[in-house]
Amino acid sequence: MSIDLTDTEFAELDELLATTPAPLQALDASMLDGYLCGVLVQPRMIDIEEWLPNIFDYDGGVLPEEVDATWLARIRELVERRYTALNKAMVEDGWFDPVVLDLEEPAEGDAEAATPAPADGSEEDAQARATYAGMSLISRTLMPWVAGFQHAALCFPDLADMPDDAVMAALARLYRHLPAETDEEKEVVATLDREHPLKDLDEAIEELIVTVADLRDLTEEQRYHVETLRREGPKLGRNDPCHCGSGRKYKQCHGAN
């Protein structure tokens, strides 16, 4: 049996996450995929018990204690399999297939249908609609995946805190697909669009995969770094009793050549 999820299992996972108890707002399948990649490229190994809870609410909410144990166990099984498959693909192939849902270009004059409806008609919501509508179809398509990746980077800031220009440049290549809110962000996106234009969605997905692979390479040394332990106390002499408790001298036991 393949480690990775089938299309049917991806759909099942998406449906299970959609039934997360309110008011929590869980990631969807595409955002989850980006989130898992964001966890995998961190400069430290992160245990599942630390990263799993963040998939159930984008704003950091916590699942209630009385949640359905069978529901939770099934989600964990599917998510852990996808995490393992992504990690295996990155390590062995330096490549992976992201979960990206195709969007169709809206018909002329139907731009409103392609933008999310405002929650309360406020000026802030209207601005969000305008920003989204101004994004390219490529960026609107990749935005959920990249938003999931950014969610991991916000939950675990070790990556963004690295004093490495190459890491910052790679993050900028991903975040170009998120709504630019500040003048600085708009300038970064404009610069990337001018100097590194993306001709179509396939090229953009390939660029996304390569960027994630670059980040994994940039953080690999830190992720697998092991501190050298210093021995406390005096060094064991060859004629001293062996530390294993055998009663024999160290040189005749564990210190034997």
Task: Describe the structure concisely for a colleague.
The chain is built from nine helices and no strands. It has 257 residues and is an all-alpha fold.
What would the keywords be for this entry?
257 residues; mainly alpha; 0% strand
Provide the gyration radius in Å.
Answer: 24 Å
User: So how many helices?
Assistant: 9
Helix content: 40-55%
> What structural class do helix, strand and pairing data support?
mainly alpha
Could you please describe the fold and organization of this structure?
This protein is mainly α and 257 residues long. 51% of the residues lie in helices and 0% in strands. The chain is built from 9 helices and no strands. Helix 1 crosses helix 4 and helix 2 crosses helix 6 (137-155). The longest helix has 25 residues, at 69-93. It is globular and about 80 Å long.
What is this structure's SSE topology?
Blueprint: H1 7-18, H2 29-40, H3 48-51, H4 69-93, H5 123-133, H6 137-155, H7 165-175, H8 183-195, H9 201-223
Helix pairs in contact: 1-4, 2-4, 2-6, 7-9
